[in-house]
Amino acid sequence: MRVSPIPLIAVLLLAPLAGCDDTTKPPPAGEAPKPPSPEPGPPKADDAPADGGAEQPASEPIPPSPDPAAQPADPPGPTSASFDHAPAGAIPPGQGPGYLDRTVWSPNMCWPLAEAGFPNSQVYGPGGGSGPAGHPNQCDSLNYSLPWHDTFCEARSRSNPLCAGSGTGHQGQDIRPATCKKNEHWAVAAEAGTITDIGTYTVTLVAKAAPHYTYRYLHMQMSTLAVKEGDQVARGQNLGKVSNDFGGTPTTIHLHFELRAGVSGMTTDGKPVTLHTFLPPYLSLAEAYQRKLNGQTCG
Amino acid sequence: MRDGRRWVTTAAVVAVIAGAALISKGEAQTPPGAPPFRFGIAAVVARPRITVEWQAAVGGLRQSANVGESLAANLDRAQVDATAVPILLPRDPKLTAGARLYSFGDYYTITANTAGGRVSLSGTTATVPLPAAKPLKVETGPEGLTVQRTVDGQLASFVRFGVLYTVEIRCDAPGDPRCHDDNYVLGLVGKTTAVVMGKAARQAAGLGG
Ligand SMILES: [Zn+2]
After folding, report:
1. What is the number of domains present in chain B?
2. What was the pLDDT predicted at A64?
3. Confidence at residue A179, expressed as pLDDT on a 0 to 100 scale
4. Which of A180, A254, B23, B183 has the greatest count of CB atoms below 10 A from its CB?
């Protein structure tokens, strides 16, 4: 079958161009190491951020979302996780739609912290921008206690096509480290793969194994990362220490853990769609943490 | 918010490309072996088979003439050759000049520096299906074009030659206008049209290594 030629010039003329295309070469290999960050101390003023919550600029309104749908009366088989954790998709009324999906999308991944952690809300927990009255400090013991809480599709203004209603919501799972001390607790590789991108407060890991999940780690202490772009990492390998780096914007001490993949499905108006988007990591995290509790090692 | 005019303009660009690429069923691109299913978990992830439309991709390669190879000149050739899907590059030599390609065979991702941020370009045949009862709230354009706003940028996806491609901008500064709306990322999608094939892709396309 022949393929028709196309007028490439027309394509190029049509293509809308934005400025700011200046490029720079990657840093040369063997560049001077960054200076170490100061030792962590006791909680400071930034432990009670008043920014309205993690990854949510105070200047951006959060679109209204329906409250979570009722949990199915006869849910699929429960997760094997035996520690105290709230069900997947259970978001309290008024805090976002949540996402009721019991798929363990990454059934073999590692728990992404070297130690324990506390998945829960950075916005509605103590010290969050919409936290409970009388609990102004993020180091409140309530934040460092079980049960876990799912935060995928918690109310946010950024896109998440899986979130019912507005199609916006939290794009990952927020996890507090073992203690309320920043720059101390390691985040580790969820799967073997390659570090494909490092931003000012983000580290991206693409898994070697199909379907090549993309794991994004936000808010680590970027000045002391244990990896650089292009590194191939093993499961459980140290990546960096959980902190509150957010490009100068205040946030709580936590790891924002994101799971992305190529996904096929249907749109709400009935069209088939394939796109790269966010998947709920909560049950994958619960299974991984249970394996850790059971003594399985990663790496 | 979305600039409707810009969306339409980019959609037109994508439509031109889509219209020119005559779809045919070429050789199948089979994803690597599926992972072991686990029992006792809430659900398992079935892996759909994605077929690369190799004839259309070869058409795109020919239309790219030598432009694609020129844009790819600084990419790691071993990584290009290991990539078993057609690689799409933006017709922007400044962006591709220092770009790094990371290949996983049926998936690749390219990271390129831009002042104040980075651009990622990826392509894959590996996808996972969502539960049928879980529809996605997202607008789609030609070639299934979607745009999502991330914590630090804008993420566009589209399907061409049967391959899922993504174009993403990630900004260092929260106030960077390229990450506030979809103008920049749609512009980048519009010029991401140059096709490059390394050895693995050429073999799969029947062009020899
Ligand atoms: Zn988060």
Report:
1. 1
2. 67
3. 97
4. A254
